[in-house]
Amino acid sequence: MCAPGAACKRAWPMKKIGKYEVTREIGQGASSTVYLGHDPFAKRDVAIKVVFPQILKDPERGKLYTHLFLNEASLVGKLNHPHIVQIYDAVVADALCYIVMEYVPGGTLEIFCNEKKLLPVERVVEIIFKCTRALDFAFRLGITHRDIKPANILIVGNDATSGDIKISDFGAAITANVDHTQVSGIGSPAYMSPQQVKELTLDHRTDIYSLGVVMYQMLTGQLPFQASNNYNMVYQIINTPPTAVSQLRKDIPAALDGIVSKAMAKDLEDRYQTWEEFAHDLAQAFRNKAVKAPTREFAESEKFDTLRALPFFNDFSDVEIWEVVRFSQWRNVPPGEVIMHDGEPGDFFCFLAEGELKVTKNGKILNLLTAGDCFGEMAVISKATQLRGADVVALTESKVITVRGETLKRASETCRMHFYQSFLEVLANRLTLANQRLAAF
Predict the structure, then answer these.
(1) How many beta carbons lie within 10 A of that of residue 85, not counting itself?
(2) Which residues, 6+ apart, have CB-to-CB distance to 411 below 8 Å?
(3) Alpha-carbon distance 31 to 67, whole Å?
(4) Residue 180 has what DSSP assignment?
(5) In terms of Cα–Cα distance, which of 430, 429, 339 is closest to 388?
(6) In the CATH hierarchy, which top-level class contains the domain 16-102?
(7) Which residue in 20, 95, 191, 362 could disulfide with 37, CB within 3.0 to 4.6 Å?
(8) Which residues contact 338 (CB under 8 A, 6 or more apart)?
(9) For 25-68, how does the pLDDT look when each residue is reduced to its tens digit (9 = 90+)?
(10) For the chain, how big is the Rg over CA atoms in Å?
(11) How far is CA 241 from the centre of its chain?
(12) What's the CA dihedral at 108, 222, 280, 208 to 10 degrees?
């Protein structure tokens, strides 16, 4: 048994927890131990967070730990997003309470908040962008995280300079239709919004503030407010403006000052009102060249924001947009380049994100394509022929997005469904336009 008020930290020489095979211990917290396990039925590695029953019955902190555990357990199967750690299972029993989650190797962002190990500015912007989209997804489900900090953002894989991230630990989350006031003992003071430290009613804008603090720390290697005790920290959060990030690191463009400042605005009305606004400004930093794009030429934040703005993808969920980001190919096309050749076989279709193209047949212009147009899809969706029916040539510097037919076949069922629905709408619009032209003769 644990002593009253003490954390139960002890290794379990167990080979199984429920149906899960235990491999090794991977971490400990104040109220739980996390193990690497394996699900023999789903055939995947999992992380198992075990909370000892004695902790939940602790006379001093038992109610808080119970709240956190049950809160996280209630989210089983709800947060299916590429940048959120999935919760697969939860068990509440007298002898043992545990939550089974997606296992994410690679560690947390904490190490990259040290001024000696800072990531490139463009990588930080991309990470924060992905966080905004994930937290917007949660917000649309009525969930506010309330404990956003580097320790709760995980890196997928061993290379922190590329790849994905995943947000974890929704135990402190508040959900729609419940009391949104601060609960004492939840959250990390350095990342709390002024509203949170004042124990006021909270909404998603408290997470926007906290993510702004994470961005500040990842850019500069230091917290915006530093104090020897929580009282001084709270005073600064409420009253003191932080130093601009560009003053603390030479390679930070001034454009990011405004983004960080708006995310961390003390007054709710001055802060970003939506996750979309925050994400849009981050993507614009790449588009406007304020932040150089990563070495792969197009930042994932720019890709996501571009696709999200195209009418073709109106009915796609954010999860499906991220899927398209991953399997699509992007390139800049110079004026005069022939993108598709009349009579040649084709196994891909394209979207025009920027610029202007012309469609020609035997030297005659059939159509002009502008941003948002889809072209070449008939050679992919038609079983009769996969031959191109015309040339497609760039008139101006253009940004072209390519999707291959074989890749689309391997996409998720819902993603494919939305592609085919949008294809039907494109074809219907073209038929309507053709009929209007015929009627004009």
Answers:
(1) 21
(2) 323, 324, 327, 419
(3) 12
(4) -
(5) 339
(6) alpha beta
(7) 20
(8) 391, 392, 393
(9) 988 877 788 999 999 999 999 999 998 777 777 777 777 777 77
(10) 25
(11) 28
(12) 80
| Stretch(es) of the chain classified as CATH 3.30.200.20 | 16-102
Residue 173 DSSP label? -
Tokens 């002024």 belong to which residue? Answer: 194
Closest by Cα among 285, 158, 271, 276 to 219? 285
Residues facing 167 on adjacent strands: 84, 153
Give the span between the Cα atoms of 305 and 200, in whole angstroms: 33
Q: Which residues pair with 345 in a beta bridge?
A: 387
Catalytic residue positions? 147
pLDDT tens-digit readout, 70-111: 888 888 888 999 999 999 999 887 778 899 999 998 889 999
Instruction: Let me know if domain 109-297 sits in CATH 1.10.510.10.
Output: yes
| pLDDT tens digits for range 188-243 | 889 999 999 998 989 999 999 999 999 999 999 999 998 888 899 999 999 999 99
Residue closest to 5 by CA, chosen among 54, 69, 70, 71? 54
Pairing of strands 97-102, 44-51: antiparallel
What is the Cα–Cα distance from 163 to 308, expressed in whole angstroms?
Answer: 20
Closest CA to 349 of 318, 327, 366, 319: 327
Q: How far is the C-alpha of 372 from the C-alpha of 280, rounded, in Å?
A: 18
- Torsional class of 393: left (φ above 0), alpha (ψ -120 to 50), beta (otherwise): beta
In the chain, ranges of CATH 1.10.510.10 domains: 109-297
Nearest C-alpha neighbor of 144 from the set 184, 185, 179, 189:
179
Domain with CATH 2.60.120.10 in the chain: 322-440
DSSP code, position 182: P
* Cα 431 to Cα 426: distance, rounded to the nearest angstrom: 9
Vertex 340: Cα angle to 339 and 341 (nearest 5): 130
pTM above 0.90, yes or no: no
Measured CA to CA, the distance from residue 27 to residue 397 in angstroms comes to: 51
